[in-house]
Amino acid sequence: MAQNYDLIIRGGLVVDGTGSAPVQQDIAVRDGRIVAIGNITESGAEEIDATDRIVTPGFVDVHTHYDGQAVWSEEMAPSSSHGVTTAVMGNCGVGFAPCRQEDHDMLINVMEGVEDIPGVVMAEGLPWNWETFPEYLDVVDKGQRDIDVAVYLPHSPLRVYAMGERGANREPATAEDLERMRNLSREAIEAGAIGFATSRLSIHKTADGGSIPTFQTDVDELTAICGGMADAGAGTFQIVLDAFVGFDREYPVIEAVVSETGRPVTFTLASGNDAPPRWRKVLTMMEETNAANDGDARVTGQVMPRPIGIIEGLELSVHPFIMCPSWQKIADLPLDEKVAAMRDPELRQALITEEPDPGHPFNELGRNWRWLYPLDDPPDYAPPADQSLEALAAARGCTPQDIAYDRFLETEGKGLLLGALGNYENNSLDSVHEMLSHPHCIPALGDGGAHYGAICDASFSTFLLTHWVKGNQPKQFDLPGAIHMLTQKPARTVGLHDRGVLKVGAKADINVINLDALRLHLPEIVHDLPAGGRRLHQRATGYDATIVSGEIIRRFDDATGARPGKLVRGVQQAA
């Protein structure tokens, strides 16, 4: 008998992404689109039994840095391991185009410092066979990968391309510079950029410790570039405000861009652990901006669903002793030899008592003992206060350095630490719940494809379901609301209206999830980057199937080898 459909998913609890109540239904797919939903009696070339499973749209991750990985790799992991079917890259104003040949090293320096991607990985992993941003898009477009990617025009390379050394040195742009950047922005949007991205964050530094080209850029420059998006009639503005100045004090930058250009804006929002809760004021400011701007000119806050922080370990970019002078004696040894050397009492005494040298801000944050916790399997991203290294040291009558040192020795150097540097007021995720409950906020900030040796937050989608839906804490999200946060809501934020929902005509990006079995595993170190580079990866259990454009890319938590992922060129209209 002829098969009517390419794929049928049968008997699952369909959570359609809109926030509506789940319904047990079948879904049929043909030619990469959903063509029927309901009680389907016809047959499919391939069928999935989704009994006792939830069926959701593929997740949309709007804050990644796969700009390099999308060129040198076919798998956008960890994101695709956690139900993500569309990833937006080029965030924070860093990327690889536009770029003249003589500026390659400068962009590598920026990306290495801001996003913790080893320079050798980028130097050897990228072909650098582009100059303009449209040419870079063409290179991405030709590649094969598991999931779809969309790309922001990044500010740092744009500024250097338009201004040369003056741009790298953060000199003010002239009228001619602004006009050129506006034209390049329009060109990028017309070629398929999803928008324009920048950063004002003071701890975003180059690998040699300098400020990135976009730090403290004049608002006139941002409005000129976003004006190029307005000229093209499309594009979202993504910005990282300087949290150390204060989101509320920096927010007028967003208001100025919205008022001048009418383009939508999405930005990083978080709570400090100790600082006054300025984020509540920012929520009010967003409400006022959005109330005053009908149509597309919306402002959306991006919120990490768990503590913002870093993972520390002897094999990673950060650990409590990495900036101590005596560490340099063993820094280049293999791990087993490091651990053997650390068992020497004299070296232990030196490392525990030495003050670290000034270095990258992450290294300084890596000794914030009150917010540093052991990270084990299963990983606890909401640890109690009495498990901090500071509290453990007080209970044992020793120093936090002793606790960290002993953990590394007891685990043969494999032990990990979680630095919860934000979103953890009063050792609680209540502020996160309040922000994510706001109509103008979405879950994001996973940074997949970056911070290879310090952050592994691309698993936030799985965490949102396991902690905020399945967890036993007093504050939770219902399942339809959580899926809406991961699908339709972020898709709409960046203008991707063809996905993020399960309806007839929509793109067939779908997850089949065993919610009862869904769990996160401890981050692990893998060596699969160009030049043998290492990165943190985190796996999940419970994804029965992840489907992109009707093709199954993952089955029972393993990759199938299918490569249906495409470059998404700009805004996509709903079916």
TrEMBL record:
Listed transmembrane segments: none
GO molecular function: hydrolase activity, acting on carbon-nitrogen (but not peptide) bonds, in cyclic amides
Pfam families per the UniProt record, alphabetical: Amidohydro_3
Residue ranges constituting the Amidohydrolase domain according to the UniProt record: 46-553
Lineage: superkingdom: Bacteria
A cellular component term, taken from the record's GO annotations: cytosol
PANTHER family registered for this protein in UniProt: COLLAPSIN RESPONSE MEDIATOR PROTEIN, HYDRANTOINASE/DIHYDROPYRIMIDINASE FAMILY MEMBER
Protein name, entry field: N-acyl-D-aspartate/D-glutamate deacylase
Biological source species: Parasphingorhabdus marina DSM 22363
Organism phylogeny: Bacteria, Pseudomonadati, Pseudomonadota, Alphaproteobacteria, Sphingomonadales
